[in-house]
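Our example pasted here:


***
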Amino acid sequence: PPQQSNVTSYEAMALAIITLEVFAGTGINAFIVCVLCIAWVKKKSLNSNEKILLLLGCSRISFLCFAWVYHFISKFFPNFLHVQTILQVLASFGTSFNYSNLWVSACLCGFYCIKIANFRNTFFIYLKVKIDRMVPWLLLGTEILALAMVIVTYVLNETLQKNNITSTCQENFWEVTIRKDKHLFSSHFLAGLVFAASFMVVIFSAVFLLFSLWRHKRMMETNSMKDLNMDAHIRAMKSVLSFLVMYSINFVCLILSILYTTKKENIMTLLIHIYLYAFPGVHSLILIFSNPKLEKALLKIPSCVK
């Protein structure tokens, strides 16, 4: 018989908030993808920044859709998650697109840093010259790496599932518990490593940009003319610092979500989920207002509707 879904009032309210966040985030990222695709068709090409934004928008739309479906089914139709195929497909796709979202976001911050920061280091100058050619390969590498991480996680989960099925005797209870903890630790350590690696890229990008802005400001203190490079520094710093603040909170929420996976649903996990679903939409909205082309396209919408 179908299992009754015991959804409390605050869980239903949280689900309604998450649904609104998912629709808003999907719409914002779909706007970015549409604008960039139209520009791609017109110009027959995209610059490196637009390529990163396009892949970021696609990965965030996919992540929001799969994560919301999994969250919705787990609340109202928990029996469907007992079907191993559905559970594996939703979890694997959601995890893959989440990794892609985090790494492509980190790539965007690194791209801003390399393009705008000014350092006399030979390696940094080499990166500045070659970054446009490296971006497609870098994005391809992030997608392959995200897929590889999902496959490793899937193998760990499969091993854990087989151990639970084959070892059900009471005398092996402690051995099964120890093996389960080891597999969970491996899976959680892998996820934490992914989050920490992307977070470090964002931190270093913000620090290098801030240091470059400070050096450039000192050099231009005696120059009364308007400096376009200074304006580019400031625009990039606003985008990267806002992302750093959001990413820091997001990183804490991701770690907390790992810690709360073995515990029952409570207020804390619901608040964590609410923020995690809001992050892709809010950050994409910041990216729209920091990009002149996207901001101009967004401001055209009210006049078109009118």
Notes: The domain at 1-305 is CATH 1.20.1070.10 (Rhopdopsin 7-helix transmembrane proteins). The chain has eight helices and no strands. The mean pLDDT is 76. The longest helix spans residues 173-219.
